[in-house]
């Protein structure tokens, strides 16, 4: 297909299709494909040299399944030797090899690799090393300057392909989700066009150090480059266009009366199964309303408007960002989004390391009652991933101290409520600010005490901050003014919400900060006082959170910390007559026990808000994208060592795809790293304690005897003594084989026939768990049918590479993302409130107002 165009003077660059590899087998396959392509193109080039010959483009993510910043050491050990071998083959064939640009978070590591290649002795005389630079990145000019400097230092004439960029939508969404300070890309197409021209000028000005390759379908951009190159008398460059696009534009270029620069066609090569992601990217890139390719076919658009100078156009809005693209911290406006921490930025990591050396976390968790930390016998707290390491100490509260805290909380509740909802909300928002100021300290405690990875620790702090701001916002909306109710003529019916009293908040260890703070924030926002009972395993995190809440303005009598044994303290408090309610997150068994204890007491019925985990499932049919299924399965089943109430426990795979999908999942599983949570490249660490470890290992042994062990990661031999359970996959007949949740990195997989999909959903429903369900399908009728039939709170539908949350969670629950406020938050707040319904009869003689009734609901 290339030969007719080559006869017309065009050159080619072959883009070997294949997105990120998910398994090492995939990576080896892509490597061999690249190597074969280099050999074939080299033979066809017949010694024309790197510039005149066709070239080959490669993606680094296809050469190693974990091409990530956190895995930099492994990238250099595994990926780099493969790329070097490809470069040596290209050098031997004397053709160009271009490393394609990918997502923003991979830029730093790709530049490191290019620099290392540039100084390889075996490539000293080769002038075909190339790199794509994305002008939509705000640091594109800096990258170009760096590459010019590299070319001069290394003696290589680098082939730089300047593109505008094909991952814009992804980068915008990721920055918003991650809570970054701003976007890594420009928000206006005009600004990208300007950056492209600035980069093009730098590449032309670099002279013979760089061979520029200008990839664009924009006539204004092409004309500007031609004019500037003529002005600078620089003719050592080429244009590039996509296969099947830009033909009319480059016919004009090739028919210029004066000197004609060469044009290279960037052509995708591969099978149909690899084409979808490529085509979707090109549609998004060139199908946007602001795209030149799109606007060019609009006959109503004057040519003068089509080719206006982008600098002149941008000056009309003073080069401001696009107003309709919400900045990351404003995505939930008027609530401020929690700030993220970009762990792929070396400068951020450097700042974190410096902060870790400076801060000295309080490593003693004491009962805090009435604002005073109490003394007592100290018990050591050990690191779950290294039980030889003590991370702190805890003093356990007594039952008498717990009852004293309850009395103080009951007495303080009227004054806390009297502050008003605005003042309470402001205190919670100040606490959120303090949490962000102290996030490195909080993250360190989460890593050491709960065994969280750094990535999970960032999400943990963000979720806690989101809870504080979310409940502050919702409290203003719900509690500020009376709600006027419909009424007959002459009546004024209103509903006002008030706090119930003193609440006991019992939180788990798997989200030691987020859920702990979420419970407290909701109760305080509604005008209640709180006795906070953290998990026995994570009191240091809880104590740090309480101290920050006190610093924000919550007084000591309004929030108490009760460290120690939950059963002993809970039994004493729940028997007290002045307790207003209990909120609990944890196992279903414990929730039932609390319910029984509350039901057995005398006096008024005490409400219980219980959020428990369960047997969460994922249903995958034959239309699903295998790579995306693999990514989601590994994240949901094994992130946080599977210690999430929303974690995937049972995976249903349609018969027709079972073997292929499992092979990919197992290949991706082999790339996970089990290790110390303090290491940035660790994917999952130890489980929380010895009891959890023993229970999980017993479950694995029982099921491998009764069912089938599909795969289990080997435990690295260099790890210290800890509560280690490695990711394990077991095959079962279905969810009916499980009687309870195994809270750890264990995935159960079952086959199903598509004709029996209703029976699969019914079996899930019969288990009585209803937290989350995931569905991977591109068949709308099927996923809608499952969504209607399933009795769960959160349903994650993944269709055509688009994820959506449908349905609602009645009283909260961790979504699949594990970040952000609980779904159904307003309902959660209402459960903390007493609804005072006031009916005022205004028809009485003389206009007197008579109070007709005051009832508590």
What does it look like?
- The chain is α/β, with parallel strands linked by helices.
- The chain contains 28 helices and 30 strands.
- It is 42% helix and 19% strand.
- The strands form six sheets. It has an eight-stranded parallel β-barrel, surrounded by six helices. An eight-stranded mixed beta sheet has the order 23-24-25-22-21-26-27-28, sandwiched between helices.
- The protein is globular.
What would you say about this model in short?
Helices cover 42% and strands 19% of the residues. The chain starts with a helix and ends with a strand.
Question: Keywords, please?
Answer:
8-stranded parallel barrel; 28 helices; disordered C terminus; alpha/beta
Q: Helices and strands in order, then pairings?
A:
Layout: H1 3-7, E1 11-16, H2 24-45, E2 55-58, H3 72-93, E3 97-99, H4 107-118, E4 129-134, H5 140-154, E5 158-163, H6 168-178, H7 189-205, E6 210-215, H8 219-232, E7 238-242, H9 247-254, E8 262-269, H10 275-286, H11 292-296, H12 303-306, H13 310-315, H14 346-358, E9 364-365, E10 368-369, E11 372-373, E12 378-383, E13 386-395, H15 399-418, H16 421-437, H17 439-450, H18 454-479, E14 483-485, E15 491-499, E16 502-506, H19 514-525, E17 529-533, H20 539-552, E18 559-561, H21 566-574, E19 581-586, H22 588-600, E20 608-612, E21 616-620, H23 626-638, E22 648-654, H24 658-669, H25 690-706, E23 708-712, E24 728-731, E25 746-752, H26 757-766, E26 772-776, H27 780-789, E27 794-799, E28 802-806, H28 825-831, E29 833-841, E30 850-856
Parallel strand pairs: 1-2, 1-8, 2-3, 3-4, 4-5, 5-6, 6-7, 7-8, 9-13, 16-17, 16-19, 17-18, 19-20, 21-22, 21-26, 22-25, 24-25, 26-27
Antiparallel strand pairs: 10-11, 12-13, 14-15, 15-29, 23-24, 27-28, 29-30
């Amino acid at each position: 297909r290339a030969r007719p165009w080559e006869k017309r003077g065009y050159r080619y660059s072959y883009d070997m299709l294949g997105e990120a590899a998910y398994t090492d087998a995939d990576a080896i396959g892509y490597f061999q494909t690249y190597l074969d392509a280099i050999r074939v193109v080299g033979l066809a080039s017949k010694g024309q040299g790197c510039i005149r010959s066709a070239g080959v483009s490669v993606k680094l993510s296809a050469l190693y399944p974990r091409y990530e910043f956190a895995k930099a050491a492994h990238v250099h050990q595994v990926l780099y030797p493969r790329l070097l071998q490809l470069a040596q083959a290209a050098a031997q064939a004397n053709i160009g090899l271009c490393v394609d640009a990918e997502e923003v978070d991979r830029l730093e590591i790709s530049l490191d690799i290019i620099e290392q290649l540039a100084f390889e002795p075996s490539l000293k005389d080769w002038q075909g090393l190339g790199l794509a630079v994305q002008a939509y990145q705000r640091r594109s000019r800096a990258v170009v300057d760096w590459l010019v400097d590299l070319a001069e230092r290394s003696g290589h004439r680098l082939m730089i392909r300047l593109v505008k960029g094909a991952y814009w939508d992804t980068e915008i969404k990721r920055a918003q989700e991650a809570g970054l300070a701003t976007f890594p890309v420009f928000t206006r197409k005009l600004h990208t066009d300007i950056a492209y021209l600035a980069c093009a000028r730098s590449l032309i000005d670099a002279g013979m150090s760089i061979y520029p390759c200008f990839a664009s379908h924009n006539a204004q951009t092409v004309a500007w480059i031609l004019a500037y190159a003529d002005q600078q008398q620089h003719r050592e460059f080429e244009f590039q266009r996509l296969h099947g696009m830009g033909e009319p534009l480059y016919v004009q270029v090739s028919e210029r009366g004066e000197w004609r620069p060469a044009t290279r066609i960037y052509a995708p090569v591969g099978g149909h199964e690899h084409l979808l992601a490529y085509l979707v990217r090109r549609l998004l890139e060139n199908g946007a309303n602001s795209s030149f390719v799109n606007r060019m076919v609009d006959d109503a658009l004057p040519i003068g408007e089509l080719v206006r100078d982008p600098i002149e156009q941008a000056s009309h809005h003073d080069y401001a960002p696009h107003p309709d693209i919400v900045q990351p911290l404003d995505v939930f406006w008027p609530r401020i989004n929690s700030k993220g921490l970009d762990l792929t930025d070396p400068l951020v990591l450097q700042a974190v390391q410096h902060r870790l050396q400076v801060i000295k976390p309080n490593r003693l968790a004491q009962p805090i009652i009435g604002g005073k930390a109490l003394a007592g016998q100290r018990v050591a707290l050990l690191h779950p991933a290294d039980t030889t390491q003590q991370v702190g100490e805890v003093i356990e509260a007594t039952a008498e101290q717990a009852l004293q805290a309850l009395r103080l909380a009951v007495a303080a509740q009227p004054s806390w409520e009297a502050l008003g909802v605005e003042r309470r909300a402001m205190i919670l928002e100040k606490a959120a600010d303090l949490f962000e100021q102290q996030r490195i300290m909080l993250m360190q405690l989460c890593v050491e005490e709960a065994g969280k990875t750094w990535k999970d620790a960032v999400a943990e702090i963000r979720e806690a901050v989101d809870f504080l701001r979310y409940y502050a916002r919702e409290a203003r909306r719900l509690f500020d003014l009376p709600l006027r109710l419909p009424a007959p003529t002459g009546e004024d019916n209103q509903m006002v919400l008030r706090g119930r009293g003193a609440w006991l908040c019992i939180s788990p260890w798997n989200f030691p900060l987020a859920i702990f703070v979420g419970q407290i924030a909701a109760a305080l926002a509604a005008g209640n006082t709180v006795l906070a009972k953290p998990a026995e395993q994570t009191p240091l995190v809880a104590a740090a959170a309480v101290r920050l809440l006190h610093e924000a303005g919550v007084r000591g009598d309004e929030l108490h910390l009760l460290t120690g044994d939950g059963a002993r303290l809970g039994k004493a408090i729940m028997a007290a007559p002045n307790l207003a309610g209990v909120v609990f997150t944890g196992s279903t068994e414990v929730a039932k026990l609390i319910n029984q204890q509350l039901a057995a007491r005398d006096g008024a019925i005490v409400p219980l808000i219980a959020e428990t985990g369960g047997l969460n499932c994922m249903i995958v049919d034959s239309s699903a994208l295998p790579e995306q299924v693999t990514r989601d399965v590994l994240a949901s089943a094994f992130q946080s060592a599977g210690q999430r109430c929303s974690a995937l426990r049972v995976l249903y795979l349609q018969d027709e795809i079972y073997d292929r999908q499992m092979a990919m999942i197992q290949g991706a599983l082999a790339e996970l790293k089990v290790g110390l949570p303090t290491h940035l490249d660790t994917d999952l660490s130890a489980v929380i304690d010895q009891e959890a470890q023993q229970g999980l290992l017993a479950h694995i042994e029982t099921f491998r005897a009764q069912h089938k062990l599909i795969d289990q990661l080997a435990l690295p031999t260099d790890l210290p003594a800890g509560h280690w359970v490695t990711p394990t996959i077991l095959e079962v007949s279905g969810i009916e084989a499980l009687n309870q949740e195994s809270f750890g990195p264990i995935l159960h997989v079952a086959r199903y026939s598509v004709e029996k999909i209703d029976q699969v959903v019914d079996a899930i429903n019969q288990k009585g768990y209803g937290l989350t369900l995931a569905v991977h399908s591109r068949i709308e009728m099927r996923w809608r049918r499952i969504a209607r039939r399933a009795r769960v709170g959160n349903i994650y539908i993944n269709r055509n590479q688009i994820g959506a949350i449908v349905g609602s969670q009645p009283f909260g629950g961790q979504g699949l993302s594990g970040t952000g406020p609980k779904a159904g938050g307003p309902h959660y707040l209402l459960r903390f409130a007493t609804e005072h319904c006031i009916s005022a009869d205004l028809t009485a003689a003389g206009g007197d107002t008579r109070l007709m009734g005051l009832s508590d609901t």
